[in-house]
From TrEMBL:
<feature type="signal peptide">
    <location>
        <begin position="1"/>
        <end position="36"/>
    </location>
</feature>
<dbReference type="InterPro" id="IPR006059">
    <property type="entry name" value="SBP"/>
</dbReference>
<dbReference type="InterPro" id="IPR050490">
    <property type="entry name" value="Bact_solute-bd_prot1"/>
</dbReference>
<protein>
    <submittedName>
        <fullName>ABC transporter substrate-binding protein</fullName>
    </submittedName>
</protein>
<feature type="region of interest" description="Disordered">
    <location>
        <begin position="40"/>
        <end position="63"/>
    </location>
</feature>
<comment type="similarity">
    <text>Belongs to the bacterial solute-binding protein 1 family.</text>
</comment>
<dbReference type="Pfam" id="PF13416">
    <property type="entry name" value="SBP_bac_8"/>
</dbReference>
<keyword id="KW-0813">Transport</keyword>
<keyword id="KW-0732">Signal</keyword>
<feature type="compositionally biased region" description="Basic and acidic residues">
    <location>
        <begin position="43"/>
        <end position="52"/>
    </location>
</feature>
Length: 465
């Protein structure tokens, strides 16, 4: 996803993410093993029809806001934006307020800065980085949650998910949307034709990729035009290979990017990125492929798609839903394989943050912290909520249901996306910092030392030394 401020992420983020990922990895692997290879018992993955009409009984009290108007800014586009608008529409119905969605651009902090400078800030912004929340607080933009929103959050979220929305002990963010970013989706027909099996380790992944290649299909689709997908690749390899402690240290720039552990992870990545025939379109093709296309091209073309597998989070289901593939039958998924001793579990998310404090803005934050709101978007697919009060039956297919249940069952056992914890200039700006260096590394994966040196130079500048 994207990223953060010019100062290290706060201690609460560090504390929340310094918990072993072992339990979460085990829960995820068990869940996907139980459902990934079977039929989709949930009735498909498209639209609001799947998952039935079951929603939790209304548990949130909202004020009457007739005549009030609100603006909500987010970088979401396409289906994701349209589904979120349905959540906002229900808020309008319940309160009488009028809510306008404001499309934002990456990096959203820069977008918000322009809006605020122009005297027209949105009332609420969906921030996809913990550090971005901290930066918004430091700039005086963000406003703390009121008592009702904080109460709703406390009732429905684990402590870890609450903590990553805090700055200096005050609650500013509601992590409305989460992501499990340790998944590899695959074309089931391609695997069947090739006689390929779901891998559990990195070496098995390489063997599976070769099997797919030998069958006449390129193994991997990579959305390299979006630099954040490449940071996600790196983070999963690094977390599994170097371990949670090193991951936390690198996330806070307590060790340098020239550390031998980074060299090992980049060298491992090059085993896939460095094989031109393993990546659809080669490096040049991948660098021209945006994330949505990287997903759709894996599930179009029958049993001869452009690639057999695509790595990314549960939200890839939104894009799979734009094809004829059905999640659980045509499109299946397995956890990112273990590179070291334990399979990685990397999470991300988007937090609602109030910029213009008012009764209406506080009510919207309260609404977004409720299971009522999350259940609406959960039904529509391509969405995962850390809200533990959601009835998992609302998810539209068995795969998504099991991923959601594993996330909630894991509680605080996760690692938050490393680039989302970094300063924005390093981990979340298109064409700069980590995004750009990893794009360059995809183009020339032999230059491990050069990539490390550039990563460290950019990180040192962004973190302030």
């Amino acid at each position: 996803m994207r990223t953060s401020s010019t100062i290290r992420t706060r201690g609460t983020v560090k504390r929340a993410t310094r918990i072993s990922a072992t339990l979460a990895a085990g829960a995820l692997a068990l869940s996907l093993t139980a459902c990934g290879g079977g039929d989709d018992d949930g009735g498909g993955d498209k639209g609001g029809e799947a998952g039935g009409d079951k929603q939790p009984a209304s548990s949130v009290t909202l004020p009457k806001l007739d005549g009030e108007s609100l603006e909500v800014a987010a970088v979401w586009t396409g289906t994701e934006q349209e589904n979120f608008k349905k959540v906002l529409a229900e808020f309008e119905k319940r309160t009488g307020a009028k809510v306008t969605f404001v499309p934002a651009q990456d990096p959203i902090i820069n977008f918000l800065g322009s809006k605020i400078a122009g005297g027209a800030p949105p009332d609420v912004a969906m921030l996809p980085q913990p550090g971005a929340i901290k930066q918004a607080v430091e700039k005086g933009w963000a406003k703390p949650l009121g008592a009702e929103a904080a109460k709703e959050l406390g009732e429905n979220y684990s402590q870890g998910w609450q903590d990553i929305g805090k700055v200096d002990g005050k609650q500013y963010g509601v992590y409305y949307k989460a992501a499990n970013k340790s998944l590899i989706w695959y074309n089931a027909q391609v695997f069947e034709n090739a006689g390929a099996a779901e891998p559990g380790t990195w070496d098995e992944l390489l063997t599976t990729a070769q099997t797919i290649y030998d069958s006449g299909v390129t193994p991997f689709s990579v959305g390299g035009a979006d630099g954040w997908t490449l940071t996600d690749w790196f983070e999963n390899v690094y977390l599994s290979q170097a371990g949670p402690e090193k991951y936390d240290q690198l996330a806070q720039h307590e060790i340098k990017w020239t550390d031998p552990s980074v060299k090992e992870a980049l060298t491992t990545l090059a085993q896939i990125w460095g094989k031109k025939d393993f990546v659809a379109g080669g490096a040049s093709g991948a660098l021209q492929t945006e994330f949505p296309a990287s997903v759709t091209q894996t599930f179009t073309g029958g049993d001869q798609p452009k690639a057999g597998m695509v790595f990314e989070g549960d939200f890839a289901q939104v894009n799979i839903g734009e094809t004829d593939a059905k999640v659980g039958t045509d499109a299946k998924v397995f956890p990112f394989p273990a590179v070291g001793g334990t399979a990685p579990v990397v999470s991300g998310g988007d937090a609602a943050v109030i910029l213009e404090d008012s009764e209406a803005a506080q009510a919207l934050a309260t609404w977004l912290a409720s299971p009522d709101a999350a259940a609406i978007q959960a039904k529509l697919g391509g969405f995962l909520s850390p809200n533990k009060s959601i009835d998992s039956s609302v998810y539209p297919n068995e795969v998504q249901k099991k991923i959601a249940e594993a996330l909630v069952a894991a509680g605080d056992d996760f690692r938050f996306d490393m680039s989302d914890q970094a300063p924005q200039a390093f981990g979340g700006t298109p064409g700069k910092g980590e995004w750009k260096t990893l794009q360059d590394f995809l183009k020339n994966p032999k230059d491990v030392a050069g990539a490390q040196a550039k990563l460290e130079a950019d990180a040192a500048a962004a973190y302030g030394g």
